[in-house]
Design a protein that fits this description.
Elements (H helix, E strand, L loop, with lengths): L1 H28 L9 H37 L4 H32 L11 H40 L4
Length: 166
């Protein structure tokens, strides 16, 4: 059971780090200055990012949630504190997914249809909305990893206290 838990924890942590990395990288390198881009630049960058991440993230995010859920189920009887921290991590990652699917993807789908000559008059408002929610999901994904890592450290430190050192 402990081997399965360790494997689930490892995979969940790796996958959630990949999810967070995509959001953090975009936020850190692009969205903090998104307001400086012209419509043509915004459309080009948006379409490029969308085409690069849409398929991989549609696989990685659900896999992350499943691995987190598996870790939660396996941890339930091993360490209650870690169980609750993992539940918090899962909840934060679900919020991240809801923001992505419910707000960001619909905006992305609009951007995919734009050209520099067909950009709508409210494109700056849509860009601002996308940016605000991207920032939120970036930090919910970071917090998710924080909770998960805290749970993992908690479980390991409690387990070490039970094992005699030779």
């Amino acid at each position: 059971m402990l081997v399965k838990l360790k494997l689930a924890e490892f995979i969940a942590l790796m996958l959630s780090t990949l999810v967070m990395g995509v959001f953090w990288g975009t936020w850190f390198t692009l969205t903090r200055t998104l307001h400086d881009f012209s419509a043509a630049e915004f459309i080009h960058i948006g379409k490029t990012i969308i085409s690069n991440v849409a398929i991989p993230m549609s696989i990685i995010m659900p896999a992350t949630l499943l691995c987190m859920l598996f870790a939660i189920v396996l941890c339930r009887r091993v360490n209650k504190d870690s169980f609750y921290l993992y539940c918090g991590a899962l909840l934060l990652m679900v919020i991240t997914l809801i923001i992505t699917v419910g707000i960001e993807v619909p905006i992305d789908n609009k951007i995919k249809t734009w050209t520099s000559t067909t950009v709508p008059s409210d494109w700056k408002q849509l860009r601002q909305r996308w940016n605000q929610f991207h920032t939120t999901r970036t930090f919910t994904s970071i917090a998710s990893i924080g909770f998960f890592a805290w749970g993992l450290i908690n479980r390991i430190s409690r387990q070490e206290k039970k094992i005699p050192v030779n």
